[in-house]
Design a protein that fits this description.
255 residues; single chain; 3-stranded antiparallel beta sheet; 10 strands; alpha/beta; 5-stranded parallel beta sheet
Length: 255
């Protein structure tokens, strides 16, 4: 078997998103009724979302969505803060629902945060993850697990999007909104991937663009080449570098 090319897992996982999103929505649909019943029984007065790294940022989005759509105060807290400063996070654990997000379902700080919440008298934990049978899934009162969204690469692509999609669906449902519009997203994603081409292929610079925001390796490449950027034409990138049209750009080296 030939050696896996660098970035190939991530490439495949990005392209698989239409199917993965559809699978995530199917899992949500199967558990929507249970979610509604569990929510009604818990009747939380406060929501705390938690995760580590990327899933903490997803938690910030989830908290904003739930508060906006359900009217229940919600905020996102890194799992480490719950672990080390639980008294600063939970003012009334019995009336609080902890909503946990973890791709692997085994993130040590997240699992410890769940245990800390239980020790304080917390009774309601929901979780969204991608691996069945893990602590984040089995120790929650209600869990949505998305095995189709699992990834081999380190970078979160389809897992992040799939978990966020389920959180959006839950927030909409519990807020009395129509969730059917979310069913349009997998096909919309497929059209976008088809139109833009596979990641790593030459991309046409969007006419009228006024700004470029580059992350990671491309930021460093842009810094090296900014004095040699094209005036117009394609954004062509490959193993030897990247050339961009002359547009104002901000760059962030992000690992």
């Amino acid at each position: 078997m030939s050696e896996q090319r660098r970035g190939e897992y991530t490439h495949q996982e990005i392209l698989s998103q239409p199917e993965t999103w559809q699978a995530a929505l199917a899992v949500y649909a199967e558990q929507a009724e249970v979610a509604a019943q569990t929510w009604a029984t818990a009747a939380p007065r406060q929501l705390i979302f938690t995760g580590c790294g990327s899933t903490h940022y997803m938690s910030m989005t989830g908290a904003a969505l739930f508060q906006t759509l359900t009217g229940i105060p919600a905020r996102a807290v890194p799992a480490s803060e719950i672990l080390f400063y639980p008294d600063n996070v939970f003012t009334d654990p019995a009336q609080t629902m902890l909503i946990v997000v973890s791709r692997s379902g085994t993130t040590s700080e997240t699992v410890a945060a769940m245990a800390a919440f239980r020790r304080m008298g917390g009774q309601h934990i929901w979780s969204v993850s991608c691996v069945p049978g893990t602590p984040v899934a089995t120790e929650a009162d209600f869990a949505i697990v998305l095995p189709a969204a699992q990834e081999q690469s380190m970078a979160q692509t389809r897992s992040f999007a799939s978990m966020l999609l389920v959180i959006e669906a839950l927030a909409a449902q519990l807020g009395g909104q129509d969730t059917s519009v979310l069913q349009l997203l997998p096909s919309a994603c497929k059209r976008l991937l088809d139109e833009c081409g596979a990641p790593g292929s030459p991309v046409r610079w969007r006419p009228g663009a006024e700004q470029a925001l580059l992350f990671g390796v491309w930021a460093a490449v842009w810094h090296r080449q900014r004095g040699h950027a094209q005036d117009e034409g394609d954004v062509a990138h490959g193993q030897r570098g990247l050339s961009l049209p002359r547009v104002p750009a901000r760059a962030k080296v992000d690992g």
